[in-house]
Design a protein that fits this description.
By secondary structure, the chain is α/β, with parallel strands linked by helices. It is built from 11 helices and 15 strands. It holds the Pfam family DeoRC.
Length: 265
Amino acid sequence: MLAAARHSAILAEVQRERIVRVADLAKMLGVSLMTVRRDIEALDAAGAVEKIHGGAKLPGGASTHEPGFELKVTQLKDEKMAIAQEAAAQVREGTAVGLSAGTTTWALAQLLSAGPRITVVTNSVRIADVFHQSSSPSTVILTGGERTPSDALVGPLATSSLKQLHLDVLFLGVHGVDADAGFTTPNVLEAETDRAFVAAARRVVVLADHTKWGTLGISTIAALEDADELISDDLLGSEARRILGERVGRLRLAPTTIAQSAASG
């Protein structure tokens, strides 16, 4: 297993269990204790986990911890691509599409850039670059604002520009999904900008892989009931499926085998 895949698996396990032991991770991954310790040291240096004696845990102050784009883009690639494929199938020519910043929406942007002409509104420089570097005929509107560690443009300039626009559909990436707090982010200004995205959209589709369930950011973007649809992957747990199935407009689970086949084809 490559280091990037191990790191992704370790991060997913830490997010699920909050605290994990080196011995358990080594058994789960089928690698040596030394390999796991090196992986934890690398993730600790990147700020993704906190190294503790015999294992790792979520970083202190996790509700405001915001991993950078370069780290997040290496995680759960198959799940994110499966979700992106489900989302892309909903977009038709001429649609005004909002894409909030994030690595799953970035994966979606790669698919949309090869599709029909649409108008894209985004607060992500990286998403705008996807369309710029392709031969896409689409129009891209990039908000201004202050750049965050996850490469989102946020703040008064971003929020003000979004208040002037009307979107057919918003694809919203989130940091966490919680039964009580709803959809959350670790950045207060990003939450404000994302709320402006939600207000501008006729339809809100949240993109959140299974590891986002139970993760809590400091600021709420929207309640679960505000999502017309939530697209996750088929590794989402049964309790999460039950709660989300009752409270979001529609819960769609993307089969990860589709993304794995596409990646290997």
